[in-house]
Automatic annotation (TrEMBL):
Listed name of the protein: Uncharacterized protein
High-level lineage: Bacteria, Pseudomonadati, Pseudomonadota, Alphaproteobacteria, Rhodobacterales
């Protein structure tokens, strides 16, 4: 059965390489993706996002969305998303958001690769986490969507 495995969340490098372009390339190469491209974007802090894609995957890596700083969220009691990340203190500029889609024919192979991805992130980043709809920190997980 074919489908898509999705992994998304936030990473905080142990030491930033100096911006989204460099940190994004390191992230791609860590996961084994050698082709990655940067695109200018004023929607994200750092003004760029990095993309890697093939017929088997799609990866986006970027700084925080600018509206995380400015738009109060009703479900957060009027706080901004960035207010909820206060536990990071001054490291917000080094925080990146990512989304990885793995397109698979065999779910067990995708599950093994996804497990390798999570292990690589845990070993190479100071913090790896996701955030719930209410702004609470939670572990990064893998979601599978199967197609008939």
């Amino acid at each position: 059965m074919s489908g898509t495995a999705s992994i998304s969340g936030f990473v905080l490098p142990k030491k930033s390489a100096g911006g989204v372009s460099y940190d994004g390339a390191i992230f791609c190469h860590l996961l084994g993706f050698t082709d990655c491209y940067e695109y200018a974007s004023d929607h994200y802090m750092g003004d760029f996002h990095v993309v890697s894609s093939s017929d088997q995957h799609m990866l986006m890596f970027h700084g925080l969305k600018r509206d995380y700083q400015t738009d109060p969220m009703e479900e957060l009691g009027g706080e901004t998303f960035l207010d909820r990340l206060a536990f990071l203190e001054a490291r917000v500029d080094d925080l990146y958001e990512f989304r990885l889609e793995l397109y698979y024919e065999h779910k067990d192979a995708a599950a093994r690769f996804a497990s390798d991805v999570l292990r690589a992130l845990d070993e190479n980043y100071e913090a790896v986490f996701d955030v719930t709809d209410t702004g609470e920190r939670c572990p990064v997980s893998v979601r599978f969507l199967e197609r008939a």
